[in-house]
Amino acid sequence: MKKLGMGLVGPGFIAAHHLDAVRRLGHVEVVGIAGSSLESARKRARELGVAHAYPGYRELLADPAIQVVHNTTPNHLHREVSLAALRAGKHVISDKPLASTTQEARELYEAARDAGVAHVVTFNYRGYPLVQQARAMIAKGKLGPTVFVHGCYLQDWLTDERAYSWRLDPKRGGASSALGDIGSHWCDLAEHVTGARIVAVLADLHTAVPTREAPAASAKAFAGTGDKTARRKVKITSEDLASVLLRFDNGARGCVTVGQVLPGHKNDLRLEVSGRLASLAWRQEQPNDLWIGHHAKANTVLTRDPALLDPAARGYAHLPAGHPEAWADAFRNLIADAYAWIGRGGTPDTRPTALPTFADGYRNSLVIDAMLKSHAAGGAWQPVDDFLEPRRAKGKRG
């Protein structure tokens, strides 16, 4: 069988993980990568073991050997690159957020839907076996009606004022920093696992480090703090801490705390769901355990074991019990689902259930936007805009 050809645009930090996941599939050929210039693309191609480099994304899109485009550019370029790829008839796998604004996200969602190709957003935490186990348990009523959904996503890479990234520049990263970068992951995970939607939010945002010392030259996604290059002071306008109350469409309440200036927390995503019959909790840094809480009997811990998982989750576990699987494996699972969908033609009825699409990316942007509006209103409850409301307002079918 002829291999699918993929090309990658934006060979920064996350690019290596996209390439690793694709190579692990075995039936996809990495054709080439495009960067900001031919020189930079060639340098990264050598580093990443890729045969061909393109001077820009347009040249990559013009190559008939490429059927799938991975968009790993900075946020402000997501719309431009993804839209061009869709118009070229390519399947698109985009890093989150889908775009810098809700308007751009809606445009991409509608363009992807109309293009009739596969369209994926890398909310990769869906790829963990025990995340799918939790989703299956809730869907089958094991927890009873959902009462409370809470958790956090905590990091410390921005603790030092000398740490800087393009993600903190509103022109490149968007209006939100911590919420858009990692809060988006938590919100997608909470909705995916519970099967419920966040319909209203009350947000309190804060900038703990209001001024940073950025490198005089352009900063990478994760800039270090120990270099001796020239520095410039930059006023930060986006949040690095956020606390948000949540209401779900099934009546459940919730809350989430997000922060990137919290010493000791490296990639600390946690989700707990409590129902009337039981609770469950999962932590990304300990991904092979699912805590199950009870009222009138002993609590238990389900350790990842393919033989013990629900059939819906079993396919996401590839090693026997006692052989840990973690972040790179979950990312590979999401990419595997993406290429399975592509292999089936990318039609809506052939999409794997756990796979996040541009529709999910647009939906997520509405949730984050509501949080920004809530804080701007002084911490007032803000409804999340209905996914199809603008189209219905024009009298068209959703």
Account of the 3D structure:
- This protein is of the alpha/beta class and 398 residues long.
- It has 2 domains: 4-117, Rossmann fold, CATH 3.40.50.720; 145-276 and 357-398, Dihydrodipicolinate Reductase, domain 2 (2-Layer Sandwich).
- It contains 12 helices and 17 strands.
- The strands form 3 sheets. It has a 9-stranded mixed β-sheet.
- The longest helix is centred in the C-terminal third of the chain and has 19 residues, at 358-376.
- The model is unreliable at 389-398 (pLDDT under 50).
Mean pLDDT: 94
SSE series: EHEHEHEHEHEHEHHEEEEEEEEEHHHEH
The CATH superfamily name of the largest domain is Dihydrodipicolinate Reductase, domain 2
Domain module tally: 2
**Any idea of the CATH class of the largest domain?**
Alpha Beta
Unreliable spans are 389-398
Number of helices: 12
Separation of termini? 38 Å
CATH architecture classification name of the largest domain:
2-Layer Sandwich
Report strand order across the widest sheet.
16-15-14-13-7-12-11-8-17
List the helices and strands and how they pair.
Elements: E1 4-9, H1 15-25, E2 28-34, H2 38-48, E3 52-54, H3 57-61, E4 68-71, H4 78-87, E5 91-94, H5 102-115, E6 119-121, H6 129-139, E7 146-154, H7 170-173, H8 178-194, E8 198-206, E9 211-215, E10 231-235, E11 241-248, E12 253-259, E13 268-275, E14 279-283, E15 289-293, E16 300-303, H9 311-314, H10 327-343, H11 358-376, E17 382-383, H12 389-393
Helix pairs in contact: 1-10, 4-5, 5-11, 6-8, 8-11
